[in-house]
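Q: Could you fold this chain for me?
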Amino acid sequence: MHEFQVETVESDGAVIHRMSGVLGDAHQPHEFHQTFLAGLAEAPARIVLNLQGVENLYSAGIGIIANCFTEAKAVGKSVILCCVPANIEKLLTLTGVMPLLTAVENEAEALSVSID
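A: Sure. Below is the predicted structure, expressed as structure tokens.
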């Protein structure tokens, strides 16, 4: 298991957070969450969470993802998941979170999907 890390880039009027490692109850995921919330007002309308490098997801990580979606929606922004590994998709589905989210195959699709 690897420590949680995030690489943030801007592309085509969107911000992309490329996550890797374990999204759980460690300091780094919570730090990302606080940074995400603090920057939400200035963020573009489209926010992409690329989960390709996420190895495992714990309840705190599920809460962080769900809260990012909820808080973004509350201020008129859209969060789109992409590159979701099968084991992570299964966890999000089992917890009832996945059906609430917008998820696509890759970053290109995330940058082109229609947002409300």
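A (continued): Residues 59-74 form the longest helix (16 residues).
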